[in-house]
Specification:
The chain is α+β, with helices and mostly antiparallel strands. It is built from 12 helices and 17 strands.
Length: 380
């Protein structure tokens, strides 16, 4: 069985590593230069994309920002999972909002902005605290602008006036006073079977995910049912195959969808050590027609992103229940260099491992780690 992944970054690498024990061969497309590469070494392979598509039994993606000409070619093969429609929806906030409204899935109140003067109307309708998001190509806090009060509106409009909002509209969202951020990863098979991972709690810093804890603390059946209902509606709408991530704001006892990601997701990396079957293996299973694996968490798990640094001590590997995953990248500000998975049977046990880990890290690059450990230490 051969699988071709569009995108050749760390997610393709981790899919490759999960596929090897299943007898599945994975190769990847570098979408920047339209070459076919080995997902681990990044060495170019002696084949064209057309030849790779012919060789592959299944095509998939590691991220949603794949050029549309490549997606059209992939979709026309009849081998692409998830579908081009699902991928494009994940890549475009206007499409995403339209689908959420169509399916009556709760999300932040919003307006679509195609001209800078429409921001005045958005303020009138939604209030003066807004977050404006580029509808395409925004991630990790990029392509976002915040409005805290009306006095800052003229300066913001002047800044946004330089953008081509007809080509790439903005989504003006009411700034939600959420209690926390959660995400649900699920997987849907070719046969339509669905399996859910437990909800994860996500801690962001400067718009970028730093820590995920799974299962998220203080989750009741009502929150789980809301999240799984939203996932199921989306998965059925797209006849989805593979892993799908849905990110939420929790506001009291209500979940509002923040965004969707039609792929394996950073907030699911904990599953590599924290579940019987990782998100990467389950994606491979789903798109190749194999039975889905067990998604239940084995105890408690934390995933800590390594961002913009490499000056940690590899002696952290001496810590029990600590697993290091590096992506082989050169250091750059805000760049995800790898992640660390920690496990424990209870939240206090997990907190103890997190606190020990901090001794091996340049803590200024891990601003959420110790605060989260303190919180988890107080839980049963």
């Amino acid at each position: 069985m051969n699988v071709l992944i569009y995108g050749s970054g760390q997610l393709a690498q981790m899919m490759y590593l999960s596929a090897v024990p299943l007898g599945i061969k994975v190769f990847a497309v570098n979408v920047a230069d339209h070459t076919v590469v080995d997902p681990i070494s990044k060495i170019k392979l002696d084949m064209s994309i057309e030849q790779a598509i012919d060789l592959a039994d299944v095509l998939s993606v590691e991220f949603e920002h794949v050029p549309e000409d490549l997606l059209e070619q992939a979709q026309s093969s009849g081998k692409l999972y998830p579908s081009m429609e699902a991928i494009l929806t994940g890549a475009d906030r206007v499409r995403e909002k339209n689908v959420l409204e169509k399916l009556q899935i709760g999300n932040s109140k919003h307006q679509i902005i195609t001209h800078v003067d429409q921001i005045d109307e958005a303020v009138a309708q939604l209030g003066e605290k807004l977050i404006l998001k580029a509808s395409r190509d925004g991630y990790d806090g990029y392509g976002q602008w915040r409005l805290s009060n009306k006095q800052a509106l003229p300066e913001l409009k002047q800044q946004l006036a330089e953008l081509d909002l007809q080509t790439v509209p903005l989504i003006a969202e009411q700034m939600v006073p959420f209690d926390r951020e959660l995400s649900l990863l699920g997987v849907r098979s070719l046969q339509g079977d669905i399996a859910f991972y437990p909800l994860a709690e996500n801690l962001h810093y400067q718009g970028q995910l730093h820590v995920s804890v799974a299962p998220a603390p203080a989750i009741d059946s009502q929150l789980t049912e809301q999240a799984q209902s939203a996932f199921t509606k989306l998965a059925n709408e797209f006849d989805y195959v593979g892993v799908l991530a849905v990110e939420f704001f929790q506001v009291g006892d209500q979940l509002l969808v923040n965004e969707i990601a039609p792929r394996v997701h950073n907030s699911g990396h904990w599953s590599m050590q924290g579940a019987d079957t990782s998100q990467f293996e389950n994606h491979m299973r789903a798109i190749t027609g194999l039975p889905l694996g067990n998604t239940q968490a084995n105890g408690k798990c934390a995933m800590i992103n390594i961002i913009g640094c490499d000056d940690y001590s590899t002696d952290l590997l001496s810590i029990n229940n600590c697993h290091l995953h590096l992506y082989g990248k050169s250091v750059r500000a805000k760049r995800k260099m790898g992640h660390i998975n920690l496990t424990g049977q209870t939240y206090p046990e997990l907190a103890e491992v997190m606190t020990t880990l901090a001794k091996y890290l340049p803590i200024e690059h891990f601003p959420k780690l110790l605060d989260e450990a303190d919180k988890l230490a107080q839980l049963d």
